[in-house]
Amino acid sequence: MKAKNLKPGDRLAPRQQHNWDWRAASNFIAGGAGGGLLFCAAFASLWGTDVRALLLGGMALIGAGLTCVWFEIGRPWRALNVYRHLATSWMTREAAVAPLVFICGGLALLTGHSIFVLLTGLFGAAFVYAQARILSADKGIPAWRHPRCLPMLVATGFAEGAALVAVASPFVITSAAGQIGVAAVTLLLLLIRVLLWRSYLAGLRADGAPDGSLRALAVVDGQFLMFGNLLPAALLLLAALGAPLVGVALIPAGLIAVGGGWLLKYTLVRRAAFTQGFALKHLPVRGRGTAGAAVKPGWGGAN
Amino acid sequence: MTRYVMAIDLRRCVGCQTCTAACKNANATPPGVQWRRVLDMETGEFPDVRRSFVPVACMHCNNPPCEEVCPTSATKKRADGLVTIDYDVCIGCANCVMACPYEARSIVHDVRFAYGDKPIASEAVRFDPARIAVSMKCTFCVERIDLAAQTGQIPGRDPEVTPACVNSCISGAMAFGDIDDPDSKVSRLLAETQHFRMHEELGTEPSVYYIWDKG
């Protein structure tokens, strides 16, 4: 039965979650970008780039995200209890990776040894993955648990990381060839991000999702495509083709691409996060009547 | 083995909300928080309109997503199927709130009373500071279930060891008991009727069965 035939009482249909506000969203926004930056910085270090500033920036972003979420939790002085469920909780695993990031990152900054740089990058990637798994494990939010949400979140984390490297590259990469390489890699990651985003949206619509989630994601779809991806992609293409003043193009391209990813994650964690709502497979049969059709108020798409 | 479940006969529920009130009374939940409530669902178009009442609360899932995501292991599933929260361990991160597809969990960050800042006499006696800023939900009146082990009574049959909502139901729509006991009331009801569980497709295996027709 369609939603228009329902007169929903209170709290029948999916509703926007209000337990995770901007502080929780900031953890995914900053932590994802920071983890991606660490991974991309480690990758860049393979070509001899001095990535110490990038490592510092990545750790600062992760630290800022975790600080925000610390202010969000109800009992912050018990925060260390977060380490008690490594067996199944991705939140525990995210928290377990964080100190490894900071220890290896600190050692990389102090010693400059490449093994610590690479380990920091790997743990940064693990942090991004753990964050994506946190959302995908939350079955109460259909927009998060959709199987195409996880790869999209990981992709945007890495794309944001590469975009931040692009922003920094005029300062840390002196050769034009190196800057062109950064532009090309960032362009590739933006392309992957866009493809996964469109695939995610198509999957949500095909499989069904709360109307509110579909509406919220549709609102940012155009902005994200145009300003978050196409505009920076055009600038990166100019840079990759070796246009003059390549560095000048990389900075705005990277900043806009990062902004697009942050808009996407804020929307996903806050505005598009609608609950499952309630549904009945069968309406009760009373007296000599018959059962009514199944009801699932507030859902759009295929269901 | 014992596994406690609830069976709710949707044909009998009249939406009186007595179970809601009984739960608030038994568990002293703060204003705005209802561990159990009854949804009022009106469907169809004139002249074919139906009204259904659906009591909902924590489903005490056999495969609880809240337990899986909880980073502190404050949420646990007991051997008898009850899903519990250790208020002294929970950090109030709300990950379980996001994981629950039944909107069964609440977090209240500030102390609230029914009439302003000061508690009325009953609230003053029963206020539990341990429940502030942590996750909370229906417990299936776990204290009563645990009492049964001491008294030898049977949950679902003896009112002293049966959840308050079940005791209060005016139409006998709610039944509680051990699904592994073929002679329990819930086992017999489920054997005789057609029923479903909410959002079964998510793999949570809820322990609340909704009866919608005779067998």
Please give a structural write-up.
The complex is a heterodimer of chains A (303) and B (215). Chain A is mostly helical. Chain A has one domain: Up-down Bundle (Formate dehydrogenase/DMSO reductase fold). Helices cover 68% and strands 2% of the residues of chain A. Chain A is built from nine helices and three strands; from the N terminus they run E-H-H-H-H-H-H-H-E-H-H-E. Chain A has a two-stranded antiparallel sheet. The longest helix of chain A is centred in the middle third of the chain and has 32 residues, at 176-207. The radius of gyration of chain A is 22 Å and the shape is globular. The relative contact order of chain A is 0.16. The model of chain A is unreliable at 1-5 (pLDDT under 50). With 215 residues, chain B is of the alpha+beta class. Helices cover 23% and strands 23% of the residues of chain B. Chain B has a four-stranded mixed β-sheet. A two-stranded antiparallel sheet of chain B has the order 2-3. The model of chain B has no long low-confidence stretch (mean pLDDT 96). Chains A and B meet through strand 1 and helix 3 of A and strand 2, strand 3, helix 2, helix 3 and strand 10 of B. Strand 1 of chain A pairs antiparallel with strand 2 (37-45) of chain B, so a sheet runs across the interface.
